[in-house]
User: What shape does this take?
Amino acid sequence: MARVNSRIKAVSILTLQPPESPVPAPALPAQSVNAPVFVPKTPIPHPASPAPVASQYYQSQSSSSSSSGAIDPTAAAAELRDDNDPVVAANANAVAAVAAVTPAKEFIPFEPYGMAESMPVPEGSMMSPYANPYAAQDQAQMLEYDAQGADLFYSTSPSFVRQPLQYHLYTQPRPEDLQPRFFVPDDIREELQQRAENIHTAPAPGLGLPEELQGYHSLIPLEPVTGERRKFGNWYSAVYRATKASDGLPYVLRRIENFRLKDVEAFSTILAWRRIQHPNIISVREAFTTSAFGDASLVVVYDYHPNSTTLSEVHVRSKQPQATSGRGSRSQDRIPEQNLLSYIVQIASAVKAVHDAGLSLRIIDATKILITGKNRVRVGSCGVVDVLMYEAHQDMASLQQEDLTMFGKLILALCCHHPGAPYNPQKALEQINRYYSVEVKQIALFLMGKPNVPQGKKAIDQIVDMLSRQSIKKVEEAHSAVDRLEAGLMSELENGRLVRLLCKFGFINERPEFALDPRWSETGDRYIIKLFRDYVFHQVDEHGRPVVNLSHVLTCLNKLDAGTDERIMLVSRDEQSCLVVTYKEVKSCIESAFNELGTAAAS
Assistant: This one.
């Protein structure tokens, strides 16, 4: 036994001697030695290579233990024995000697999740603290996506649930006194971020759309691709959003299927529409024909307005209105008169701009007018009918008269919430007389009725005169909205100063080395900057809890940017020293340190 012990001691001294290397081995804590070996649930393929002696040992023991449940120490020593290596042979002899006096024990693999059933579950807990996250019965549950609610476009691959966008970037409630001075109002921020998110939506695969179309790529349908197909007059039509390769901006492509252009001069009307720039008209960019969809298609390109919807989807119902049965529609379904008059004023302004340019809209329908903002409407699909009906040379004056008639039909459809209301004008006018003012009724009667003027023609200028009082109100509302947006822009503009200050903090604080001085950021003026950083961001209350106060941060940074003479006390982290300085002095320290860095960077 003494001989065995001496051999074990000699082997231990030999094997524990550190390797001769200039790089010291990192020390491991005691807990890491006894930590269980991570075994992945899915086998990982490895390239075929000769396994070392130790690997062969563990492979053989794992296969034998799975059948017998015990490890043979003598076999382990035999596996480790290598007569050509005296160190390995000595280790094997030592293991065999210890195994002779140690009883064999059954090998029980460590399973941390197997103790979940035997461990007590705390009261009120939803699951065991040792629950196995890989033991989900459904793979969709483990991957955290809803297989039933997946997008139909992703039928062959799992569609992961998209996390909602955090529109407000602040973790704590913002103080009320900071709202009008430092941040854009929440409703404007949310709307703008929703639009930006919509613009960067990725196209869905498997739709069979062309990858490139006359310089446009990443086509995304803006209308349902299933169900009843939509028509534009007598032609089937589809609307896509695409990105132009030359400028990277999104545009809308309206495609007219199975249309063969017989005369290239039809595109001359598109050139006339490009010259019209109006806030209530969706601008026309260009038009072209293509066979990329497998047929001869006409494509007209427009500006893209994200998160917009049509008047038909918001205000026009597909079912029969209650007005036809002698009853009025419900009050919650009616468009407020101020909103209705706002729509009428904006559409009248668009019609006047088109008629003054010597053109005609030729289609004024609730499905072709978009709501792009709060009570903001834009007339779309301009120029398409001019190309489709180019060969039918019609008088422009008669076409402009048809525009006014379609305008009146649109007002009836909006007032009655049904596209068939213009076909029963008597009932529609009764409902208008019941729920709206005389002004709305007079406008609808003028547009729908026969002209009562010496020339025998209606003109959009007459509608503009009838809307003069409402137009003044809408101009006032537009100016108020501009003032609100400018105020929000100014508040965010001021925040740019604070970002520059924070960038300077980031360049200076905790810099590892500068000018061969590893303690540059901890000495001189930089030490004051470090203490000021702790004063602004690392304060704690009397209970030692961190103070997360946005008001304090903004107040300190603005005083620092202004360089006020207000004094503050900066305390070191060990509370052994304190400094009384002014914001002006701290600002001078920051400028000096930052200029020093800038000078070194430019040299």
